[in-house]
Amino acid sequence: MTHRITRRAALAGGLAGLAAPGLAQAQERPPNFPVRPIEMIVPYPAGGGVDITARTLAQEAGRVLGHEFRVQNRVGGAGLVGHTYMAKSAPADGHSVGVTANPFFFLDFLTREGQFSAEDVKPVVGINFSPILWVSRTASPLGRLDFDGVIEEARRRPGELKVGITPNNAFQFVTEIVERQKGVRMTHVPFQGGRPGVTALLGGNIDLTNCFYEEVEPQLRAGELKALAVSDDRRFEPLPDVPSMVERGVRMPGGVWGANRFAIVPRATPEPIRRYLEAGLLRTLRDPQSVEAFTKVGILLRPADAAETERVFGSTRETLIAFLTETGRPVRR
Amino acid sequence: MARLAILLLLAGVVGALGWLSLGIAGGAGLYPRIVIGAALILLAATAVAELRRRPALGEADPELAALVSASGGGAGRTIGFLAVWLAHPLAMPVAGFLLATTAALAASLLLLGARRRWLAVLGACVFTLLLSLAMRLVIYVPVPAVGLDEALDRLLFALRAGRG
Amino acid sequence: MLDGVLAALAPAALAFGVVGVVVGIVFGAIPGLTATLAIALFVPVTFAMEPANGLIMLGGIYAGAIFGGSISAVLINVPGTPASIITGWEGHAMARQGQAPYALGLAAVSSGVGGLVSALVMLFLAPVVARLALTFGPAEFVALLVFSLVVVVVMLETPLARNLAGCAIGLALGTIGLDPVNGVPRFTFGVADLASGLNLVAVLIGFFCMTQALVLAREAAQGARRVELAFGGVRGAWRVLATVVSHFRTYLRACSVGLFLGVMPAIGPESTPFVAHAVEKRFSREPERFGRGSPAGLLAAEASVSANVGGSLIPLLSLGIPGSGAAAMFIGALTLHGLRPGPLLFTERGDVVYAFLGGFVVANLAMMLIGLFAIRYFAVALLVPKGVIASFVALFSLFGAYAVNNSLFDVGVMFAAAALALALRAVSIPILPVVLALILGGLLEENLVVFAITVPTLEALLARPIAVALFAVTALILALTVWRRVPGHPRFG
User: What is the pTM assigned to this prediction?
Assistant: First the structure.
């Protein structure tokens, strides 16, 4: 695990910061905390990837730390409402911990209407990273091809392959990165999330789609869908035979273009409390029984401490701004 | 006349949306312009029909007629009822769920002529407290918590910690 | 399979099923607390249970809440859950004719029949029926949505121009929020809460619950004590059962419509009774009774919703595609229990799936029995003074609108919707097409966009016979209606 974290830190262009679990674990519980259940605030609806992560974390943290955690969904504006709440109005007493994911959190204020910034919150822990998958349908003409084959096909028939994306969001950005670097053009078909795209792919209405692993895991196992590549600089553990995009010659930093889930608190949260939460949640994420509980719901943990998460924030932000500027999209800072 | 005024108001709101839709860049504005345009045309057709045969407000809708009629008494208390419930969500972030809801429920019951006043107030208190407890122990709804609610939260948390 | 189904008869499973039904009925019956909210609030509760028991309880809650909504709809004309809007329309009319127990009994049994039919289809035909969901691409979806809107618009007896105006207003309201092509905010005025559009549940609560709370409040303020409804004697279950048996074909049609719309991804139980009711009216020998207390209309609405509930779980369990919003919530519940809904679920975790399906059957039977034999106790609601009913309907309208997304903004949306509903009523623009258009509007635009991209030419469209046929039928219905109700005819404007 340390090896991986170090690599990520090196990528962030910073110092090779070694996570220091020993230090973090020594953190003591502050007096008079908590005085009521700790709320894990999720800006997405119940049942989604972030929500399931938060619910599992809440249950496991409750078991490991011996006090109650609850999950609160603040849904609206595709995350905007919950993010704004965490950054601007959640009580900064440590009883409100936001669980959300990048690049969606950052995109809300970089390209969308979010009236907040990354400075309004402080990271507590990094939870996991789930790369974006490119999948095709096994029974379709494209089903025989691997990633390179599909790119070749797209080059042969410019604009004809139909790929499912979410408009102006990570799925579309990854598609654009591949298109720009490989010099191909495909037709983007907009969907409101990964699952509708998967449905359209299963019905043969599009040729490939972007999605997350948990959205297609059963279909992959049943052999109905085929994973072409993952948007990372390394392979994704549950899919050891699927190449990473970097491996296939697409330049992209690791750990950015996917769902990078983490926990945050409002900036004004007292430091001892934040450190206690950091130590406690890290302990939970490394607890063998918790790891098993997360595996059961299909989540592969990549725990990271706050300093590490902060560094990933920095690299994510740089990458996003560079991409948005390059593609001529306005960036609000 | 009142009907025409309301129809104009509706058309005005829809028209305002239509005007705003002209400012939407790219293809995103096309669909709204079409449906809003259709709504405006159909509202105009409705207005023409109204002019031809001026029906009274609440015609064929006795419930509505009874609701908005000035006669028959109770208009003031109905407005009071509406005001109480409009004020309730505004009061919640300041006073907290327990206090705001108890007050609103009791006021609403008293306004609408509860026979035994003490029972209305007591009932409002007990009901709100039970609802609060249910929201903390069985189903979880994070209502605005200030003062009394936080105290209840702490009490339950302490009880639980003491037991465990 | 049999083992699994029989597992649902274990005492614990039975208890959870019945508890779920009771909780569902209570939630459903309270105006403002919707079926979806009940599931959302109880998913975490089931987290701690055995997977099969938790799912059985959720299934019971879902089935119970859909029926529960009909109780308040029939008795006080406030649909307890959006799926019972049409039931309230027919059922309350029946109640005013002194047939409340009969209407409630019919609702209970029809709900149960719809649920049982969908459970049987789930048990035996799930993989086949699930494929149906995939044959419907964007072209077919657009055709189906337009068809749904048109049948309801032409079915209503109010003037055609007003029905269409309502429909257009609903579609226009549906465009608020991020657009489906570029994710550009439309009509949001920089308010984050509006970016994902108006909260549908809050709007529906405003339309149907808050307005009715005001009506009740005015009546109470004028000194009316109780809801004036002759409850009649409970004339036995026999009359209900006789009606049920004699409406065999109605059930067949309603269950087919419900199952079919349920299987379609993203079409939930809210819009289904509109379509089933309109279709039934076309087939009925007494169409003039529809909307005025027609038992056939009530049966069709209620059975179709329940069939939809089961139907929406079919593609979920066998393909991993949720058939509705509430079904999407089931994905979360299943995942939290370590089950992955998808093509392998039946083979890998058949034990849990079949226990759940068995439990769903049990829950529907329990609901029928509770509904049929506990009707007399629901009448207690009529002993409560109107002022008290009005106050609690108002409180739960606020609470229900808030609790969907834990948002006070949505409470404001609810009040605005109530004002809009009153304005529309004042100018005799019917609310039903507004509601249906608002429910389906977002889906229609999303699919129109994908349709335009994936079916770019006329030839491509002609290669999709289902879509073409649906478009043709829709055009025919519309043309016939316009021709029959020519402009200038008083019923047009």
Answer: 0.90
Q: Name residue A189's beta-bridge partners.
A: A164
Long-range pairs, C480-483, Cβ under 8 A, ≥24 = C481/C154, C481/C160, C482/C160
| Contact between residue A262 and residue A4 where contact means Cβ atoms under 8 Å apart | no
Judge whether C229 and C96 are in contact, CB under 8 Å: yes
Does C493 reside within a domain?
no
What angle is formed at CA C360 by the lines to CA C354 and CA C365, rounded to 5 degrees? 130
Give the integer Cα–Cα distance in Å for B41 and A261.
Answer: 49
Q: How far is A65 from chain B (nearest CA, A)?
A: 12
User: Cα–Cα distance between C155 and C276 in angstroms, integer?
Assistant: 11
Considering only the top CATH level, what class is A131-230? Answer: alpha beta
Residue B89 shares a structural domain with residue B155: yes
Subunits adjacent to chain B (3 or more Cβ pairs under 8 Å):
A, C
Give the integer Cα–Cα distance in Å for A92 and A76.
22
Boundary-marking domain end, from B17, B45, B68: B68
With tokens 């998967």, the residue in question is A198
State how far the alpha carbon of C167 is from the alpha carbons of C138, C171, C211, in Å: 21, 6, 20
The whole-angstrom separation of Cα A170 and Cα C489 is: 54
- Asked if C127 and C318 count as a contact pair (C-beta separation under 8 A), the reply is yes
Q: Chain B closest CA to A72's CA: distance in Å?
A: 7
Q: Which domain holds residue C243?
A: 2-484
Are A52 and C328 within 8 A, CB to CB? no
Q: Nearest C-alpha of chain C: how many angstroms from B139?
A: 6
DSSP A220-242: HHTTSEEEEEESSSS--TT-TTS
Q: Which fold has domain A2-130+255-326?
A: D-Maltodextrin-Binding Protein; domain 2 (3.40.190)
B57 and B6 in one domain? yes
Give the orientation angle of helix C138-155 with respect to helix C160-173, to 10 degrees. 140
A-C contacts at Cβ under 8 angstroms: 151
Q: Which domain holds residue B56?
A: 2-68
Cβ separation C221–B28 shorter than 8 A: no
Q: Answer whether C342 sits within 8 Å of A297, measured CB to CB.
A: no
Contacts of C186 in chain B (CB under 8 A): 21, 24, 28-29, 32
Whether A81 and C181 lie within 8 Å, measured CB to CB: no
Q: What is the pLDDT along chain C (493 residues), one digit of tens a residue?
A: 677 777 777 888 889 999 999 999 999 999 888 888 888 888 878 877 888 888 899 989 988 998 999 999 999 889 988 889 999 999 999 988 888 888 998 999 999 999 999 999 988 888 788 878 888 888 998 999 999 999 889 888 888 899 999 999 999 999 998 888 888 888 988 888 888 889 999 999 999 999 999 999 999 988 877 776 766 555 567 788 888 889 999 999 999 999 999 888 878 888 999 999 999 998 888 888 888 889 999 999 999 999 998 888 888 888 887 777 777 778 888 888 888 888 888 888 888 888 888 889 999 999 888 888 887 777 777 788 889 999 999 999 999 999 988 899 999 999 999 999 999 999 899 999 999 999 999 889 989 999 988 888 888 889 899 999 999 999 999 888 888 766 555 444 4
Specify whether the CB–CB gap between C137 and C454 falls below 8 A: yes
Residue C68 belongs to a domain: yes
Identify the CA nearest to B102 among candidates B117, B118, B123: B123
Nearest CA in chain C to A296: C338
Q: Are C394 and B89 in contact (CB under 8 A)?
A: no
Same domain? For B58 and B103 the reply is no
Flag if C182 and B101 touch (Cβ within 8 Å): no
In 3D space, the residue among C22, C88, C23, C18 whose CA is nearest the CA of residue C56 turns out to be C18
